[in-house]
Design brief:
The chain is mostly beta strands. The protein folds into 2 domains: 1-13 and 26-53, no CATH class; 64-100 and 117-128, no CATH class. It contains no helices and 5 strands. It has strands at 32-36, 42-46, 69-76, 82-90, 119-127. A hairpin with a 5-residue loop joins strand 1 (32-36) and strand 2.
Length: 128
């Protein structure tokens, strides 16, 4: 691969080829960057992940989100006793979600859902 067009390079070679008299000439076609520290000084360091900066980033699959909800009601029995009724709904909108495509073929399988089905949990508590 031609290093002048390598997408991993942070400081590519300028279109005119650069000049030796340019103060940044030594940093062209490298991964060198200058970081300004808290005290105002600058430090030259290299960005070296051996990968493209956007490679292997977490990207959620399509529609892989969910919505949960909860309701509760407290009913007083006496001054020092009460009953609390909870209703918890998981994946309340019942969004099936799509799995990530196959990494080698790119085919999207609709055989299974990426999200769990809607679930309901009821609880009753005695508070005293």
């Amino acid at each position: 691969m031609n290093p002048a067009v390598d997408p991993e390079r942070v400081s590519p070679i300028p279109a005119n080829g650069g000049s030796v008299s340019d103060p940044n000439y030594a940093n062209y076609d490298t991964n060198n960057v200058f970081l300004t520290l808290k005290n105002g000084t600058q430090v030259k360091t290299a960005v070296d992940t051996n990968q493209h900066p956007w490679r292997n980033q977490f990207i959620p699959g399509p529609l892989t989100w969910g919505l949960d909800a909860s309701l509760f009601k407290i009913i007083r029995i006496k001054e020092s006793a009460a009953v609390r009724f909870n209703a918890d709904f998981f994946n309340v909108l019942n969004m099936p979600g799509l799995n990530m495509p196959n990494s080698s073929t790119g085919i999207l399988s609709l055989q299974n859902s990426a999200n769990a089905p809607r679930q309901l949990q009821l609880t009753l508590r005695l508070l005293w």
